[in-house]
Amino acid sequence: MFDIMDFGIGEFTGDSGSDSSAPSGPYIPEASECMRCGMCVSSCPTFRLFETDMETPRQRIRTISKVLVEDVPISAEERGHLDNCLQCRACETACPSRMSYGSLFDQARMKLQQTVARPRLAKLAMYLIEHKRRRRMLLPLLSLYLRSGLRKPLRASGLLRKLKLANAESLLNEPALGSLAGIYPVGRRQRQRGRVALFTGCLAEHFDRATQRAAIKLLNTIGYEVVVPEGQGCCGAIHQHNGCSAQALKDKNIEAFYELEVEAVIYVASGCGAMLSEYQGDDSETAGWFGRSLQDINDFLLAHWPDTLEPAASNLNVAVHEPCSQRNVLKNGRAVHELLRKIPGLNIEALPDNQLCCGAGGSYMLSHPDNAQQLRNAKRQAIEGSGADVVVSSNFSCAFYLNADRAETALKLVHPIRLLADRV
Protein backbone atom coordinates (compact mmCIF):
# COMPACT_ATOMS: atom_id res chain seq x y z
CA MET A 1 0.00 0.00 0.00
CA PHE A 2 2.73 2.47 0.95
CA ASP A 3 5.39 1.55 -1.60
CA ILE A 4 3.98 3.90 -4.22
CA MET A 5 3.51 7.04 -2.17
CA ASP A 6 6.82 8.50 -3.23
CA PHE A 7 5.75 8.98 -6.86
CA GLY A 8 4.97 12.44 -8.17
CA ILE A 9 2.28 13.80 -10.45
CA GLY A 10 1.39 11.50 -13.32
CA GLU A 11 3.16 8.47 -11.85
CA PHE A 12 0.36 6.65 -10.07
CA THR A 13 1.16 2.96 -10.22
CA GLY A 14 -1.94 1.31 -8.90
CA ASP A 15 -2.15 -0.77 -12.11
CA SER A 16 0.85 -2.11 -13.97
CA GLY A 17 -1.13 -2.33 -17.18
CA SER A 18 -1.79 0.38 -19.74
CA ASP A 19 -5.48 0.92 -19.01
CA SER A 20 -6.14 4.52 -19.97
CA SER A 21 -8.93 4.71 -17.40
CA ALA A 22 -6.49 4.24 -14.53
CA PRO A 23 -6.30 7.26 -12.21
CA SER A 24 -3.42 9.67 -12.49
CA GLY A 25 -1.77 11.97 -9.99
CA PRO A 26 0.07 11.42 -6.71
CA TYR A 27 -1.11 8.61 -4.50
CA ILE A 28 -2.02 10.12 -1.13
CA PRO A 29 -3.64 7.72 1.35
CA GLU A 30 -6.87 8.43 3.17
CA ALA A 31 -6.56 9.40 6.82
CA SER A 32 -7.84 5.94 7.79
CA GLU A 33 -4.93 4.36 5.89
CA CYS A 34 -2.25 6.22 7.83
CA MET A 35 0.03 3.90 9.78
CA ARG A 36 -0.18 6.34 12.71
CA CYS A 37 3.36 5.45 13.67
CA GLY A 38 3.90 9.02 14.84
CA MET A 39 7.31 9.20 13.22
CA CYS A 40 6.49 12.27 11.14
CA VAL A 41 4.78 13.93 14.09
CA SER A 42 7.74 13.71 16.44
CA SER A 43 10.14 14.92 13.74
CA CYS A 44 8.08 17.98 12.73
CA PRO A 45 9.35 21.30 14.13
CA THR A 46 5.97 23.04 13.96
CA PHE A 47 4.35 20.27 15.99
CA ARG A 48 6.98 20.91 18.63
CA LEU A 49 5.99 24.57 18.62
CA PHE A 50 2.20 24.21 18.67
CA GLU A 51 1.60 20.62 19.86
CA THR A 52 -1.53 20.31 17.74
CA ASP A 53 -2.29 17.65 15.15
CA MET A 54 -3.07 20.31 12.54
CA GLU A 55 0.62 21.23 12.60
CA THR A 56 1.83 17.79 11.51
CA PRO A 57 2.86 16.40 8.11
CA ARG A 58 0.03 13.83 8.08
CA GLN A 59 -2.58 16.60 8.39
CA ARG A 60 -0.83 18.73 5.78
CA ILE A 61 -0.95 15.75 3.45
CA ARG A 62 -4.74 15.76 3.84
CA THR A 63 -4.74 19.40 2.75
CA ILE A 64 -2.37 18.70 -0.14
CA SER A 65 -4.71 15.90 -1.24
CA LYS A 66 -7.58 18.37 -1.43
CA VAL A 67 -5.50 20.70 -3.58
CA LEU A 68 -3.87 18.24 -5.96
CA VAL A 69 -6.23 15.26 -6.13
CA GLU A 70 -9.71 16.29 -5.06
CA ASP A 71 -9.39 19.80 -6.53
CA VAL A 72 -11.57 21.33 -3.85
CA PRO A 73 -11.12 24.65 -2.03
CA ILE A 74 -9.34 24.65 1.31
CA SER A 75 -10.16 26.88 4.26
CA ALA A 76 -8.06 29.81 5.42
CA GLU A 77 -7.19 27.79 8.51
CA GLU A 78 -5.95 24.88 6.39
CA ARG A 79 -3.93 27.25 4.23
CA GLY A 80 -2.40 28.76 7.36
CA HIS A 81 -1.32 25.40 8.73
CA LEU A 82 0.10 24.45 5.32
CA ASP A 83 2.05 27.71 5.07
CA ASN A 84 3.47 27.16 8.55
CA CYS A 85 5.53 24.26 7.20
CA LEU A 86 9.28 24.98 7.15
CA GLN A 87 9.82 22.47 4.32
CA CYS A 88 12.67 20.95 6.30
CA ARG A 89 11.63 17.52 4.96
CA ALA A 90 12.42 15.78 8.23
CA CYS A 91 9.14 13.93 7.74
CA GLU A 92 10.51 12.33 4.55
CA THR A 93 13.43 10.87 6.46
CA ALA A 94 11.17 9.62 9.27
CA CYS A 95 8.32 8.28 7.10
CA PRO A 96 8.46 4.48 6.65
CA SER A 97 6.52 4.85 3.38
CA ARG A 98 9.07 7.27 1.84
CA MET A 99 6.42 9.76 0.76
CA SER A 100 7.84 12.59 -1.39
CA TYR A 101 6.39 15.27 0.83
CA GLY A 102 8.65 18.06 -0.45
CA SER A 103 7.67 17.56 -4.07
CA LEU A 104 3.97 17.33 -3.25
CA PHE A 105 4.16 20.43 -1.06
CA ASP A 106 5.81 22.48 -3.84
CA GLN A 107 3.16 21.38 -6.34
CA ALA A 108 0.34 22.31 -3.98
CA ARG A 109 1.94 25.67 -3.13
CA MET A 110 2.29 26.50 -6.83
CA LYS A 111 -1.34 25.66 -7.54
CA LEU A 112 -2.56 27.71 -4.58
CA GLN A 113 -0.38 30.65 -5.52
CA GLN A 114 -2.23 31.02 -8.82
CA THR A 115 -5.32 32.23 -6.93
CA VAL A 116 -3.59 34.65 -4.53
CA ALA A 117 -2.00 38.02 -5.25
CA ARG A 118 1.59 38.17 -4.05
CA PRO A 119 2.48 41.16 -1.81
CA ARG A 120 4.56 43.89 -3.45
CA LEU A 121 7.54 43.38 -1.16
CA ALA A 122 7.56 39.68 -1.96
CA LYS A 123 7.44 40.46 -5.68
CA LEU A 124 10.36 42.86 -5.30
CA ALA A 125 12.38 40.32 -3.35
CA MET A 126 11.78 37.65 -5.99
CA TYR A 127 12.76 40.09 -8.72
CA LEU A 128 16.04 41.02 -7.04
CA ILE A 129 16.90 37.39 -6.35
CA GLU A 130 16.27 36.55 -9.99
CA HIS A 131 18.11 39.54 -11.53
CA LYS A 132 21.75 39.63 -10.54
CA ARG A 133 22.62 43.02 -12.03
CA ARG A 134 19.73 44.81 -10.31
CA ARG A 135 20.66 43.17 -7.01
CA ARG A 136 24.28 44.26 -7.32
CA MET A 137 23.19 47.87 -7.92
CA LEU A 138 21.60 47.99 -4.47
CA LEU A 139 24.60 46.65 -2.58
CA PRO A 140 26.55 49.96 -2.35
CA LEU A 141 23.44 51.63 -0.89
CA LEU A 142 23.06 48.83 1.62
CA SER A 143 26.72 49.10 2.61
CA LEU A 144 26.39 52.88 3.00
CA TYR A 145 23.34 52.42 5.24
CA LEU A 146 25.13 49.94 7.50
CA ARG A 147 28.14 52.24 7.88
CA SER A 148 26.23 55.50 8.24
CA GLY A 149 25.02 55.10 11.83
CA LEU A 150 21.38 55.34 10.74
CA ARG A 151 20.55 51.80 11.77
CA LYS A 152 19.89 52.43 15.46
CA PRO A 153 17.70 55.56 15.10
CA LEU A 154 15.77 54.05 12.19
CA ARG A 155 14.99 50.95 14.25
CA ALA A 156 13.86 53.12 17.17
CA SER A 157 11.58 55.23 14.95
CA GLY A 158 9.23 52.33 14.21
CA LEU A 159 9.30 53.12 10.48
CA LEU A 160 10.77 49.74 9.61
CA ARG A 161 7.88 47.98 11.33
CA LYS A 162 5.33 50.11 9.47
CA LEU A 163 7.00 49.25 6.18
CA LYS A 164 7.18 45.56 7.20
CA LEU A 165 10.94 45.62 6.79
CA ALA A 166 12.00 45.18 10.43
CA ASN A 167 12.62 41.44 10.19
CA ALA A 168 14.63 41.72 6.99
CA GLU A 169 16.66 44.66 8.32
CA SER A 170 17.56 42.78 11.49
CA LEU A 171 19.33 40.12 9.40
CA LEU A 172 21.56 42.47 7.42
CA ASN A 173 25.33 42.44 7.53
CA GLU A 174 28.05 43.94 5.36
CA PRO A 175 27.94 42.60 1.78
CA ALA A 176 30.84 42.00 -0.58
CA LEU A 177 30.58 44.67 -3.26
CA GLY A 178 32.95 43.32 -5.89
CA SER A 179 32.51 40.21 -7.99
CA LEU A 180 34.63 37.10 -7.92
CA ALA A 181 37.06 36.65 -10.78
CA GLY A 182 36.13 34.39 -13.66
CA ILE A 183 39.09 32.02 -13.26
CA TYR A 184 41.32 31.11 -10.32
CA PRO A 185 44.35 29.19 -11.61
CA VAL A 186 46.48 26.78 -9.65
CA GLY A 187 49.74 28.23 -8.32
CA ARG A 188 52.82 28.06 -10.53
CA ARG A 189 54.61 25.63 -8.22
CA GLN A 190 51.67 23.21 -8.14
CA ARG A 191 50.68 20.51 -10.55
CA GLN A 192 47.21 21.06 -11.98
CA ARG A 193 45.07 17.96 -11.50
CA GLY A 194 41.90 19.26 -13.12
CA ARG A 195 39.38 22.04 -13.58
CA VAL A 196 36.12 22.61 -11.66
CA ALA A 197 33.38 25.24 -11.58
CA LEU A 198 32.03 26.95 -8.46
CA PHE A 199 28.33 27.62 -7.88
CA THR A 200 28.01 30.85 -5.88
CA GLY A 201 24.24 31.26 -5.52
CA CYS A 202 22.45 34.58 -5.08
CA LEU A 203 22.58 35.98 -1.53
CA ALA A 204 25.56 33.81 -0.58
CA GLU A 205 27.51 35.44 -3.40
CA HIS A 206 27.37 38.73 -1.49
CA PHE A 207 27.02 37.69 2.15
CA ASP A 208 29.21 34.58 2.36
CA ARG A 209 32.22 35.63 0.32
CA ALA A 210 34.68 34.35 2.96
CA THR A 211 33.39 30.79 2.50
CA GLN A 212 33.57 31.00 -1.28
CA ARG A 213 37.14 32.25 -1.11
CA ALA A 214 37.98 29.42 1.28
CA ALA A 215 36.56 26.96 -1.24
CA ILE A 216 38.65 28.46 -4.04
CA LYS A 217 41.79 28.40 -1.88
CA LEU A 218 41.33 24.74 -0.95
CA LEU A 219 40.51 23.65 -4.49
CA ASN A 220 43.60 25.48 -5.79
CA THR A 221 45.70 23.97 -3.01
CA ILE A 222 44.79 20.42 -3.99
CA GLY A 223 45.50 21.19 -7.65
CA TYR A 224 42.21 22.28 -9.24
CA GLU A 225 41.69 25.38 -11.32
CA VAL A 226 38.38 27.06 -10.39
CA VAL A 227 36.00 28.69 -12.88
CA VAL A 228 33.21 31.03 -11.68
CA PRO A 229 30.79 31.55 -14.59
CA GLU A 230 29.15 34.96 -14.69
CA GLY A 231 26.04 33.51 -16.33
CA GLN A 232 24.98 31.55 -13.26
CA GLY A 233 22.26 32.78 -10.90
CA CYS A 234 20.01 31.81 -8.02
CA CYS A 235 19.40 28.07 -7.63
CA GLY A 236 15.63 28.71 -7.62
CA ALA A 237 14.84 27.24 -4.20
CA ILE A 238 13.14 30.36 -2.84
CA HIS A 239 11.02 30.67 -5.96
CA GLN A 240 9.96 27.03 -6.01
CA HIS A 241 9.21 26.78 -2.31
CA ASN A 242 7.04 29.90 -2.50
CA GLY A 243 4.89 28.66 -5.36
CA CYS A 244 6.69 30.38 -8.25
CA SER A 245 8.15 28.65 -11.27
CA ALA A 246 11.91 28.20 -10.97
CA GLN A 247 12.38 26.53 -14.35
CA ALA A 248 13.93 29.58 -16.02
CA LEU A 249 16.52 29.82 -13.24
CA LYS A 250 17.25 26.10 -13.49
CA ASP A 251 17.69 26.23 -17.26
CA LYS A 252 19.96 29.28 -16.98
CA ASN A 253 22.26 27.57 -14.50
CA ILE A 254 22.42 24.33 -16.45
CA GLU A 255 23.31 26.26 -19.60
CA ALA A 256 25.95 28.41 -17.83
CA PHE A 257 27.83 25.37 -16.50
CA TYR A 258 27.28 23.08 -19.48
CA GLU A 259 29.28 25.48 -21.64
CA LEU A 260 32.38 24.92 -19.49
CA GLU A 261 34.93 22.15 -19.82
CA VAL A 262 35.03 21.14 -16.17
CA GLU A 263 35.17 17.90 -14.23
CA ALA A 264 32.71 18.96 -11.55
CA VAL A 265 30.28 21.68 -10.52
CA ILE A 266 30.96 22.44 -6.86
CA TYR A 267 28.51 24.05 -4.42
CA VAL A 268 29.34 25.16 -0.88
CA ALA A 269 25.84 25.82 0.55
CA SER A 270 23.85 22.66 1.25
CA GLY A 271 20.55 24.52 0.77
CA CYS A 272 21.53 25.36 -2.80
CA GLY A 273 22.90 21.86 -3.25
CA ALA A 274 19.59 20.27 -2.24
CA MET A 275 17.81 22.30 -4.91
CA LEU A 276 20.50 21.77 -7.56
CA SER A 277 20.49 18.01 -6.96
CA GLU A 278 16.84 17.82 -7.99
CA TYR A 279 17.16 19.81 -11.21
CA GLN A 280 15.26 18.59 -14.23
CA GLY A 281 15.86 20.59 -17.39
CA ASP A 282 14.09 20.71 -20.74
CA ASP A 283 17.11 19.07 -22.38
CA SER A 284 17.68 15.68 -20.79
CA GLU A 285 21.29 15.54 -22.03
CA THR A 286 22.38 18.81 -20.40
CA ALA A 287 20.34 18.20 -17.24
CA GLY A 288 21.81 14.73 -16.98
CA TRP A 289 25.33 16.11 -17.33
CA PHE A 290 24.64 18.71 -14.66
CA GLY A 291 23.35 16.10 -12.24
CA ARG A 292 26.35 13.84 -12.79
CA SER A 293 28.80 16.74 -12.41
CA LEU A 294 27.29 18.26 -9.27
CA GLN A 295 29.29 17.73 -6.05
CA ASP A 296 29.28 19.10 -2.53
CA ILE A 297 32.51 20.89 -1.56
CA ASN A 298 32.96 18.65 1.50
CA ASP A 299 32.55 15.47 -0.56
CA PHE A 300 34.86 16.69 -3.32
CA LEU A 301 37.66 17.77 -1.00
CA LEU A 302 37.42 14.53 0.96
CA ALA A 303 37.61 12.42 -2.20
CA HIS A 304 40.54 14.34 -3.73
CA TRP A 305 42.59 15.32 -0.68
CA PRO A 306 46.30 14.55 -1.30
CA ASP A 307 47.91 12.15 1.15
CA THR A 308 50.90 14.48 1.41
CA LEU A 309 48.87 17.53 2.50
CA GLU A 310 48.47 17.79 6.29
CA PRO A 311 46.83 20.89 7.79
CA ALA A 312 48.24 22.59 10.88
CA ALA A 313 47.15 20.99 14.15
CA SER A 314 44.46 22.46 16.41
CA ASN A 315 43.01 21.60 19.82
CA LEU A 316 39.68 23.36 19.26
CA ASN A 317 36.39 21.76 20.29
CA VAL A 318 34.14 21.85 17.22
CA ALA A 319 30.37 21.26 17.20
CA VAL A 320 28.93 20.30 13.81
CA HIS A 321 25.50 21.70 13.00
CA GLU A 322 23.76 19.56 10.39
CA PRO A 323 21.36 21.60 8.24
CA CYS A 324 18.02 20.08 7.22
CA SER A 325 19.06 20.24 3.57
CA GLN A 326 22.14 18.18 4.33
CA ARG A 327 20.49 15.79 6.77
CA ASN A 328 17.19 15.14 5.00
CA VAL A 329 17.93 15.68 1.29
CA LEU A 330 21.64 15.32 0.52
CA LYS A 331 22.27 12.87 3.38
CA ASN A 332 26.02 13.50 3.38
CA GLY A 333 26.60 14.91 6.85
CA ARG A 334 29.35 12.42 7.65
CA ALA A 335 31.56 14.03 5.01
CA VAL A 336 31.92 17.10 7.23
CA HIS A 337 33.16 15.03 10.15
CA GLU A 338 35.57 13.08 7.95
CA LEU A 339 36.92 16.20 6.29
CA LEU A 340 37.52 18.00 9.58
CA ARG A 341 39.45 14.98 10.83
CA LYS A 342 42.14 16.04 8.37
CA ILE A 343 43.05 18.65 11.02
CA PRO A 344 45.21 16.90 13.66
CA GLY A 345 44.07 17.32 17.27
CA LEU A 346 40.60 18.67 16.49
CA ASN A 347 37.83 17.45 18.81
CA ILE A 348 34.65 17.03 16.72
CA GLU A 349 31.14 16.42 18.08
CA ALA A 350 27.66 16.63 16.58
CA LEU A 351 25.57 19.54 17.85
CA PRO A 352 22.77 18.29 20.15
CA ASP A 353 19.28 18.17 18.57
CA ASN A 354 20.68 18.31 15.04
CA GLN A 355 17.43 16.79 13.80
CA LEU A 356 15.51 19.94 14.74
CA CYS A 357 15.29 22.76 12.18
CA CYS A 358 16.94 26.06 13.14
CA GLY A 359 14.02 28.10 11.77
CA ALA A 360 15.77 29.69 8.78
CA GLY A 361 13.90 27.68 6.14
CA GLY A 362 15.00 29.81 3.18
CA SER A 363 12.56 32.74 3.29
CA TYR A 364 10.65 31.29 6.28
CA MET A 365 12.64 33.50 8.64
CA LEU A 366 10.95 36.48 6.95
CA SER A 367 7.49 35.09 6.28
CA HIS A 368 7.04 33.50 9.73
CA PRO A 369 9.41 35.42 12.02
CA ASP A 370 7.75 34.41 15.31
CA ASN A 371 7.88 30.67 14.57
CA ALA A 372 11.40 30.99 13.20
CA GLN A 373 12.64 32.89 16.24
CA GLN A 374 11.37 30.24 18.66
CA LEU A 375 13.25 27.56 16.73
CA ARG A 376 16.33 29.77 16.51
CA ASN A 377 16.28 30.34 20.27
CA ALA A 378 16.22 26.58 20.86
CA LYS A 379 19.12 26.07 18.44
CA ARG A 380 21.10 28.86 20.06
CA GLN A 381 20.62 27.24 23.46
CA ALA A 382 22.01 24.01 22.04
CA ILE A 383 24.99 25.92 20.66
CA GLU A 384 25.72 27.72 23.91
CA GLY A 385 25.39 24.50 25.88
CA SER A 386 27.62 22.47 23.56
CA GLY A 387 30.86 23.61 25.15
CA ALA A 388 32.30 24.16 21.67
CA ASP A 389 34.94 26.72 20.74
CA VAL A 390 33.65 26.78 17.16
CA VAL A 391 30.37 25.73 15.54
CA VAL A 392 30.34 24.79 11.86
CA SER A 393 27.46 24.55 9.40
CA SER A 394 27.46 23.70 5.70
CA ASN A 395 24.45 25.85 4.87
CA PHE A 396 24.71 29.60 4.34
CA SER A 397 21.06 30.28 5.21
CA CYS A 398 21.29 28.52 8.59
CA ALA A 399 24.52 30.25 9.56
CA PHE A 400 23.24 33.60 8.30
CA TYR A 401 20.10 33.35 10.44
CA LEU A 402 21.75 31.95 13.56
CA ASN A 403 24.51 34.58 13.42
CA ALA A 404 22.15 37.52 12.86
CA ASP A 405 21.61 40.17 15.52
CA ARG A 406 23.74 38.45 18.17
CA ALA A 407 26.08 39.72 20.84
CA GLU A 408 29.67 40.05 19.69
CA THR A 409 30.76 37.57 22.36
CA ALA A 410 28.35 34.83 21.21
CA LEU A 411 29.58 31.82 19.24
CA LYS A 412 29.34 32.36 15.51
CA LEU A 413 28.75 29.65 12.94
CA VAL A 414 31.22 29.23 10.08
CA HIS A 415 31.41 26.82 7.18
CA PRO A 416 33.64 23.82 7.98
CA ILE A 417 35.90 24.49 5.01
CA ARG A 418 36.89 27.82 6.55
CA LEU A 419 38.51 25.97 9.44
CA LEU A 420 40.41 23.84 6.96
CA ALA A 421 41.40 26.74 4.73
CA ASP A 422 42.91 28.60 7.70
CA ARG A 423 45.21 25.66 8.37
CA VAL A 424 46.67 24.88 4.96
Automatic annotation (TrEMBL):
Domain (4Fe-4S ferredoxin-type): residue spans on this chain: 24-55
SUPFAM superfamilies tied to this protein: 4Fe-4S ferredoxins
Keywords recorded for this protein, A-Z: 4Fe-4S, Electron transport, Iron, Iron-sulfur, Metal-binding, Repeat, Transport
Necessary cofactors: [4Fe-4S] cluster
Annotated signal peptide: none
EC number: 1.1.99.14
GO molecular function: 4 iron, 4 sulfur cluster binding; glycolate dehydrogenase activity; metal ion binding
Enzyme class name: oxidoreductase
InterPro entries: 4Fe4S_Fe-S-bd, 4Fe4S_Fe_S_CS, Cys_rich_dom, Glc_ox_4Fe-4S, Helical_ferredxn
Stated role: Component of a complex that catalyzes the oxidation of glycolate to glyoxylate.
PANTHER family hit by this protein: GLYCOLATE OXIDASE IRON-SULFUR SUBUNIT
Protein name: Glycolate oxidase iron-sulfur subunit
Organism: Methylomonas denitrificans
